[in-house]
Amino acid sequence: MKIAIVGATGEVGRMMMTCLEEQNLQPEILDLYASVKSVGTMLYYMDKPLEVKELEEESLQTEYDYVFFSAGGGVARSYAPIAAEAGAVVIDNSSAFRTDPRIPLVVPQINSSLLKNYRGIVANPNCSTIQMVLPLAVLDKAFGMKKVVVSTYQAVSGSGHGGIDTLEKQRRGSQVKGIYPDIIDLNVIPQIGVFLDNGYSNEEEKMLSETRKILDNDKIQVSATAVRVPVMYGHSNTVYAEFEREIDLQTAASLLSDAPAISFHENSYITPLGIGSSNDAHVCRLRYGVDKYSLNFWNVGHNVRIGAAANAVNILMAHHDINPKS
Ligand SMILES: NC(=O)c1ccc[n+]([C@@H]2O[C@H](COP(=O)([O-])OP(=O)(O)OC[C@H]3O[C@@H](n4cnc5c(N)ncnc54)[C@H](OP(=O)(O)O)[C@@H]3O)[C@@H](O)[C@H]2O)c1
Questions:
Q1: Pair (9, 142) in one structural domain
Q2: Total domains present in the chain
Q3: Which of ligand 1's atoms lies nearest the C-alpha of 73?
Q4: CB within 8 Å of 319: residues ≥ 6 apart
Q5: Residue 44 within a domain
Q6: Pairing relation of β-strands 294-301 and 235-243?
Q7: pLDDT by residue (tens digit) across 106-155?
Q8: In angstroms, what is the span from residue 137 Cα to ligand 1's centroid?
Q9: Nearest 5°: phi and psi at 244?
Q10: In this structure, what is the dihedral angle of CA atoms 125, 128, 134, 139, given to the nearest 10 degrees?
Q11: Which end of the chain is more exposed for a tag (fewer CB within 10 A), N or C?
C-alpha cells in the first residue's frame, strides 16, 4: 500500500502515524509532506526514519493508494483534488469538503457503506461531532432521535500546535492572548471559530450540519454551544437528546455498552485526563432528561485520536476492507 500524509508534522499528522502503527500497517511507501519550514525534519514510522518533504503539486501526482490531509482547509482545497485526480483515495481532516453533498462524511462505525467502491475525497468529520455522534447513532437507531442540545468543552490541542503553545506560554506567566480571542489559562472562552449572522459560531454550525449528514436525517435539530477550555487533550460534551419513543434506561445502557468504539461507564465518570490514549468515545452519567423520552450524558473523546487521526485511519481500514484493531 502506498500512503502519503500531508501535514505530517502537525498534531493530527503525527497521530496519524501512531494510529497506522497501532494497526500494524506496513505500507511499501509512506511519504510525509508539510510546509517548507519542516523540510528535512525526521519522523519515525516503526523505528524507520522518514524525512519530511515540502508539499508541491508534483508531490501528489505519484500514484498513492491513500493520501491523508491534515494541513487545514486551504491546503486541502488546493491539493486534495490533485491527489484524487491521480487516483488516490483522499481522507481529509479539514472542513473544506464536509458539507459538499458529493463527498461522503464518514464515521465508519455508522456509515462505512458509503465507502464501498468509492474513489475520490472522503471527509473526516469535526472532532466534537465524531465523539458525540457515535453514541447518538446507537440511541437514534433504538429510539428515533429528534433533537440534541450540546455544550462542548474543547481542549487547546483542537487548535493544533498553536493552541498548545498558547496555553503552555500562558501557564508560564505570559499575558499574550496567542491564537485565542482571550486568555485561555485559568479561563473558558465561549467562542470557537467565527460568529455567523445567526449568533452561532461556525464550530457550532458544524455540529448541526455534520450530525444531520452522518445520520442521514435532515430533520434532526441540533443546538450547540462550543467552548474552549484550558485542557491539553480530550474534548468533553454535555449532551441532552430527545427521542420519538419512550426510553428504557437499562436498554439504552446495554446498547451503548455493546456498541463498537464506545466505552460506557455505568457507575463512574471519566475526565479528559482519564481517557489516556483511548480511541473510543466515552459515555457516562447516562440519565433521563426532562422525561422518559429524553436523555442526558457526559461524553469524552481524545480529539486528536477519535476526533481526527483514529477515525481517518479507520476510514482507510474500512475502505480497504481490513478490520481495525480496537
Ligand atoms: N487538532 C485536532 O484535534 C483536530 C481535530 C479534527 C480536525 N483537525 C483538523 O486537522 C487539520 C490539522 O490540524 P492540526 O491540529 O494537526 O494542526 P497543526 O498542529 O497546526 O498542524 C498543521 C500541519 O499542516 C502543515 N501545513 C501548514 N501549512 C501547510 C502548507 N502550506 N503546505 C503543507 N503543509 C502545511 C503544517 O506543517 P508545518 O509544521 O511545516 O507548518 C503541519 O504539519 C486542520 O484542518 C484541523 O482543523 C484537527
A1: no
A2: 2
A3: 45
A4: 66, 89, 115, 118, 122
A5: yes
A6: antiparallel
A7: 999 999 999 999 999 999 999 999 999 999 999 999 999 999 999 999 99
A8: 28
A9: -70, -40
A10: -120
A11: C
Query: Cell for 156?
Result: 487547546
Which residues contact ligand 1 via a Cβ below 6 A? 7-13, 33-35, 37-38, 55, 70-72, 75, 93-94, 127, 157-158, 160-162, 303-304, 307-308
Q: Is residue 324 in a domain?
A: no
Phi, psi of 256, rounded to the nearest 5 degrees: -70, -40
Nearest alpha carbon to residue 312 among 55, 71, 45: 71
* Annotated active-site residue in 19, 161, 235, 302: 235
Kindly list the strands in the beta sheet with 53-54, ordered across the sheet, starting from the edge strand earlier in the chain: 53-54, 29-34, 2-6, 66-69, 89-92, 121-123
Cα-to-centroid distance, 103 and ligand 1 (Å): 21
pLDDT in tens, 41-71: 999 999 999 999 999 989 998 889 999 999 9
Give me ligand 1 centre to Cα 305, in Å: 14
The residue whose CB lies within 8 Å of the most ligand 1 atoms, and thus the one to mutate among 93, 305, 313, is: 93
Distance 60 CA to ligand 1 centre (A): 17
Structural contact between residues 301 and 127, judged by C-beta atoms closer than 8 angstroms: yes
Considering only CA atoms, which of 54, 58, 124, 59 is closest in space to residue 96?
Answer: 124
Query: Do 103 and 189 lie in a common domain?
Result: no
Its domain, for residue 290, covers 128-303
Do residue 142 and residue 271 come from a single domain?
yes
Dist. CA 94–CA 63, nearest whole Å: 22
**127 belongs to the catalytic site:** yes
- Do 135 and 117 lie in one domain? The reply is no
Both 54 and 201 in one domain: the answer is: no
95 and 138: one domain? no
Lowest pLDDT segment from 1-5, 56-60, 206-210, 243-247: 56-60
The answer to whether residues 191 and 201 touch, using CB atoms and an 8 Å cutoff, is yes
What is the distance between the alpha carbons of residues 319 and 84, in angstroms, rounded to a whole number?
Answer: 15
